[in-house]
């Protein structure tokens, strides 16, 4: 790590600042209730939602070929057909997708303590939101959680040539803020994108949010720091800056 103080912090969005996984689970529970009460599905309702969850986790989205709404409606259509048999039911798939999506967005909120942390941090350093994913999906989340005003800049991977962990998107972020990679810290919950990307770009430090105490694979990228909550970040940044002061 270089001997300059931290000048900028890049934050991931999903499961770092907002509980995307929890919001998705709530969306699935609403769909299960819908399928059971309106369409009289029994245990098939949970099977369908489990299948969709697997499809989402394996999703490969290419914006040139399809739109995210069509792709995700197809996940539901396939899951329903795989579970119930018979002909495809696009109308029901659309109903399930829209209920899941709207419930999920309703529960994507910035906690008050996270807002307070960002507000305080921004008095000291530049803040940038750096999120991978489809442009439409991520912009809807950013709007739903009303987080844009807490940042000096927002960068969505789906709007760039390359996403995290490619160094180019990190250099683009540095240029936006007028800082060098050695001035910046990346904070995120995903080793393969957030942490690997920060390492690839030569950032001052990478901070892995490991909420559930996951033991990483031996082959995983190694972060400079590990915290269990994003709220631990201000104290960590102070300690990084203290090391710089002591070194100089």
Automatic annotation (TrEMBL):
Lineage top rank: taxon: Eukaryota
Family stated for the protein in its record: Belongs to the HAD-like hydrolase superfamily. NANP family.
Keyword set includes Hydrolase: yes
Protein name, per record: N-acylneuraminate-9-phosphatase
GO MF annotations in UniProt: N-acylneuraminate-9-phosphatase activity
Gene3D superfamilies, alphabetized: HAD superfamily/HAD-like (3.40.50.1000), Haloacid dehalogenase hydrolase-like domain (1.20.120.710)
Listed pathway(s): Amino-sugar metabolism; N-acetylneuraminate biosynthesis
Entry EC no(s): 3.1.3.29
Membrane recorded as keyword: no
Protein's organism: Saimiri boliviensis boliviensis (Bolivian squirrel monkey)
Cofactor: Mg(2+)
Gene Ontology terms: biological process: CMP-N-acetylneuraminate biosynthetic process; N-acetylneuraminate biosynthetic process
Keywords: Carbohydrate metabolism, Hydrolase, Magnesium
Catalytic activity: N-acetylneuraminate 9-phosphate + H2O = N-acetylneuraminate + phosphate; N-glycoloylneuraminate 9-phosphate + H2O = N-glycoloylneuraminate + phosphate
